[in-house]
Amino acid sequence: MTIELMLASAKSFVFVLAAMLPILNPAATAPIFLSMTDGASPTTRALLARRIARNMFWLMTGSMLVGSYVLDFFGISLPIVRVGGGLILASVAWRLLGATPATPDSRAALADAFTPDHAYRQAFYPLTFPISCGPASISVAITVGVALHDVKLVMSLARMGGALLALAIIGVLLYLAFRYGEHFLRLIGEAGTAVFLRLTAFILLCLGVQIVWEGVRELLIEITSVSGHLAIRANF
Questions:
Q1: Which of 113, 90, 130, 127 shows the shortest CA–CA distance to 216?
Q2: What are the pLDDT digits (tens) for 115-134?
Q3: 10-69 tens-digit pLDDT
Q4: Domain residues of the chain, as ranges?
Q5: Which of 50, 21, 27, 62 has its CA nearest to residue 116?
Q6: Which residues cross the membrane (predicted)?
Q7: Coil, strand or helix: which one is 212?
Q8: Nearest to 140 by CA among 24, 46, 5
């Protein structure tokens, strides 16, 4: 029985790591984090990186464990979550695309304004949600959480243990990417950084639109299915 539990835990670890890491993708969101915290001191960025990684872990854990029950309680479907979250993500990406490059004077002003208290308020929204883990990752986490459940409580606990370990490792990777991503941007220079940030923001915008479209498509399929059932009943 112990070997079976260990095997189940290892399988869920690999499953969650393979499913969640490409969706969360810390390397892709690190430039957005650096752009939105332009002017912050290294200490403040380190504080933010820790808080965002911690918030991501708890948000994904909550989505896996109770996400489906919360949505059922409020009568909210996953397509609606995708539409709402995708709109927020696209809105943030649009603002990043239209942002003007920071001058030395504006950076100095931002450095004075971006205090640890300010960072604390922004740590969850928008830096954790929807930048670091958006509606797509929440939807995947809810789906993964449903797949990890088992009729045996001990087996479910073993699978959840492996899943939480995978989330913890992703949190560490997220922290490292946010904490030390600035060193990579220094290597490509100021012009390369500007191009890279705009490209990342555009990809984020496309991702938001894609999430909205997936939600709308699922809603249209549900509407078509309901209409078909009503038409069949009407014929009888």
A1: 90
A2: 667 667 778 888 888 888 88
A3: 999 988 888 888 778 888 788 888 888 877 778 888 889 999 999 999 999 999 988 878
A4: 1-234
A5: 50
A6: 53-71, 123-148, 160-181, 193-213
A7: helix
A8: 24
